[in-house]
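Hi L., both proteins are below.
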Amino acid sequence: MQNSTGTATACASPARLLRAAGTAAIAAFAGGVWTGLALAAAGRFQPWAAWLASAAAGLAVFAGERRAAPPADNVPAPRTEAAWLSAAAILSAATLALSLPPSEWVTGGWDPGVYLHTASSIAKGGSLRVKCPDMTALPAADRALFGRTFRGAWEPFLGMRMTTAGWISPQFHHAYPVLMAMLWPFGGTGAALLVNPLLNAACVFLFYLWASGILGHKWGLAAAALLALNPAQLWQARFGSAEMLAQFMVLSGIVILRRTIDGEEARRGIDPWLGGACLGLSMLARYDAVLLTVPVALVLLTVIGDTRRRGRVLAALLAMTALAVHCRLHNLFLAPLYAPMSERLTFFLLLGAAAAVTAALSGILFRRIPAKQAEAVTGVLPRMRIAAAAMFAAWMILLWYVRPRLAVDGRVLAAVNSLFPGVQNTAFFRELAGRDAQNVLYLVSIFGVFGFFAACAGVVRLILRARGLLNTAWLTAALGASAVLMLRMYHEPFMMFASRRLVTAVIPLFCLGVAAACAWLHASPRRLARPASVLVLALAFAGNLRATAAMSRNREWAGAAAWFRNAAGLMPAGSCVVSDQPGFAAPLRFLHGHLAWETAKRAGIGEAVEALQRCNGGEPVYLLTASAPPPGIGAAPVASLQMQSHIQRSARHAVPLSTRPRGGSFTLYRIPPQPGQ
């Protein structure tokens, strides 16, 4: 009787239901995206099939979570914990007021356009192998008139390359455009552009869960608020590229794995597989996610000898490895012309998994580490933390003060030359003092000078004091990623575009660092410590308040989607249209179904029109241009189209507070077939 009552109480426990619902939601999301990606790879994508798989995964995990929850989950959550969760949920929902409506990067060329056009192709054609029969039929001699040749492949649109097999391979990893394609039935382009604002809201809540497990509810909420109001995070929430999905998958994975592996009441069942799969799925969203997954895997390997946790660690590692294999096979067969850095690093994840299996088998034979060795390892760990904290502090000083001054004449460069004569002629020095010499200024601009130093102090504190396997794993991964990206960004050197690289892990790390510095002050017994902690937090918020306001106010390419929809509607369905405006032809083709082409150079538009007329079967060709058409082709104006929009100003190391205009006066011409064609 007591058991029945206890079971009924457990089933009714809000904490248990909430935890089961959250885990099920993450499983539904991951299951739907992975299924959609597999279907698109097979040329069988259907949004409803992906949604059905999503619902099935969510329901199965929800049922399993309710049955498998350990006794600790059956205890109702204290009212204070429920209040903090409610506050985090409100903060998460409030971010939508800052990120909606999203920017409308629908033009071709830049990453958001490539992702959006890939999503449209998947939703409409059901495959990642984009078929364009008119482009395949174009004589090879005429291809030089359109697009460009890049790395030996014809690229009719930037980011869309033609394979030797005759299909177009969209660049980048494809989990993100698959997610956009899943939303396509609910509103086409407009629905697809909502993905990042919604993901941002979810990331803020997940980050609260993560940060509160390290710093407590109060400072965990402060860290989440810092993330929500960070200008780079907010800009990314409106900018249609895959970093937000990668951040979501990483946060989902580490939150689940910390609950699964750490603590006396470590969870079993599906959780370790799901946590590992979330981390693995991040590699199918962004190539640089390996900067996080590989260090996490290596840290997990350090406890493979622990018989209590070995099974769960192995499950997480095997799930990550399976997704790494999927990523490699996907790139090999679905993106053969895309060769990112992760191609070289997935090997190390596979090697780590092999080492895990070997270590686990060894652990079956040698179940216990000798006591003396265990004590030696335990004694070394504090010194390792001190060394890591000192290295981080020295690295930040080097990045902030020394490295930027190596590229210009001054006392720092003179001192280096006196200590190391001839160092300027070495390849290492040229790399250190090259175009990435001021990378740290991205972080300084994003957080403000005061916030940056508060974050650095807090990160040092986290290195010294944070405990738990997953906390250590995430710190190791985030610190490693920040070290690599500060050394070299591998990106265009414009402030907001470059800051995307920091979204997945570096910006969350520094937000957590600011909150950790405040928590450290607040816990001090000194009389002015608590007011000082509040002051530090207030100054950290104030340091980027203007930038945050600018990011929420300045919506880029506003009205562009409607402009292209209007332009497309002025031509019969499936018309052949050519444009000399970079990026304007791609949305007309991939979003609106016209046979649109982009000229390689504006001076060759007459030749491009002639080539299309030869292949067009006597149908008229349309020309969209901001300049006068070439004489003698019989171009008749159809409509005058005025575009008035704007984007953020380009800046190297300062968050732009204003916009610059984009657009102009365009005319759509109809060019009839020439006699004899």
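That was the first. Here is the second:
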Amino acid sequence: MAGGDEYHHYNYVQHVYQTGTLPDRANAATSPFRQASGQAPLYYWVSSLALRIFNAPQTNGADLQDYLNTVAKNPWYTPPDLWNRQDNNNVYLYDGTVSLPDVEQASKITRIVSMLFGLVVVWAAHGVFTQLFGQSNWASVGTAIFALTPMFVYLSSFTRNDTAATAFATLTLWQCLRILKGRHSAGQWLLLGLLLGLAGLAKVNTLTVGFAVAATIIFWWRNHHMTVLRAVINTMLVALPVLLTVGAWMLYGWIIYGDPFGTGTHYRPDQAYETALSLGAVVSLLPNVYVTYWAFLGSTTYMSPWAYLLLGLIVVMALLGYCRLFSSQHRPNPKLIRQQAILIIVFGAAAIVAMLQWLRTVHFVTGHVLYPAHIVIAIALTVGLSRLGAWFQGGRRLVQLIAVAIVAFSSIFAASLALIEAFSPPQLWATDQLPDLQGGPFDFDGVIRLLGIHLDDNRLPQHGLYSVTLCWQVLQETDRPAAFSVRLTREGHDIGVRTSIHGMGHYPSSLWHMDDIFCDDIDIPLQQSPEPATLYSVQVNMLDAETGNFDWLASTLGGESVPYPFVAEVIASAGDMRSQMPDDTLGSNVNFPQLATLERYSVDGDLMPGEHVRLSLLWHVTAKNNANLKQFIHLYGDDYFISLADGIPHSNAYPTWAWQVGEYIVDQWDFIIPDNLLPGEYNIRIGFYDEQGRLSAQNGDSPSPDNAALLVSFEVTE
């Protein structure tokens, strides 16, 4: 289901439909309604009435919640890169793998209710813009910006109370503007109070429009020079329907739960911060609020960044319009314009303050919380655009066209494309279409084959994400729930792990067909920075998606069991490690022209028989060498030779084929000087070799005998 928590709202509707009562907020942590159980009931009552009219099926909220949590939702749904729309989205609810026709039928009806409320909102928005702009084209432009904002269209498409709240908030503002223009009978005040009460009964934060209502009462009183008594009467006419609607619900919440606003259901450990965030922390969250105000689809889906840039262009255009000084031309009734502006500003300011308080206390707040005041933001944009259009001759039509085209493109094309990319099954490939693969194949329980892994870059970043591609082939259909895990590991220590259902959340094993070939592009978050000059292995395992047990057994094509399927090696570059060298270093003239120059070295310990010595070498890589060379450290004397150390450089962690030109690599070796050395002159020589022989070595410009470069000499005395 859409929106992450749509099923909570749907279950609320079903509860009202089946029982005629409100959910018990005391069980919010475990009930099928969760935090939605504290929401005001208007939308849910209207939707339950629609279910009753159409004799819709009754469904069990606990069963639906269990299905979504164990079958239809990827337990690892939060993607590390929110802009990757194909990564880790929820599995289809209506994918045909589990038959839920009753839920499908009933939820379509509740979604239609949301759509009808959305149509009411558009009608009310046009009424507001007509009050402000008359019959000019700007009224239509403002309505289009309001109606075509992608997030508004999305909110109007699924089971949730946002469009109902936005509808009554917009209707309330419209009525305020109508009264301000002279409609002030007792019936008009009662209607205003009823709309305000229904707004609060749809969603409690919509009561912020009450500040516009209060300003309307004050302005009407001052404009018409009425008595205080008359103002009090008008206030009472407004307050009466408010008290009978949202007031009654708030009284119920206060008496039963001590929570008149119903917000207590959000203040659970998994929903609320232990202490309210600081102002600085809240400011850091505002960019996400801005982006998600324009569009945040499904549970994790953003549109393309280009779509948000285009929508931001409307904001920039509006700000440019506000920068223009107001025209000196005569404007009708400037007092009315000022009062209209104040109504709109106090409503918007109250909504922003409420949102900031929500940001300080509750996790995962997105821009949808501003939608009761969506009309205010649409007005602000339209006014700025109208001023910009008046700035230069012939500019009005161009500004109108650009603004409407941007929101229409974003809503109709960009949002639709994002949803298609996010929820469509992955593309199926033919064998000859696959990218270059390494590290496979491995069969998992004879059901699916990992064909291999593709790496665009085998070098790890120091932080952020590392991307790989896994390609799979289905060997046989199965009902067994599958997931996979990719690990970046070395000697049992993981620096990055990513687990997901195949298809990154939307191609579960229940949809597999024999011979399907598909690839998963995987972003692996680095949980810690990799050690410089270190080789890490990429390990792939499969697990049961319901139990989490790693019980899908891997084997080679020959049937040999593979407990740890390693599919690739990736490199954490050395970079510049000069700061890791000891302070007491010595210069060196050792050079291996086909690989590196030894810049400096350090000897920690006495070069004496039986002593432990640590040799630190600082290599400056001067040439790329793809050979897997070993390094040796040899001790020579008169008629004496012994190998002190031998192996892959950097403690077997950074082979020479991984060295990159320009790197400074610190390589340390520990060894013991033999305790049976006879008196005499000895020297330590170093070099590199593989099965082809030793690498050419030099001391300065002179070739080294046997390609073993002299490093240091010492004398053993009696």
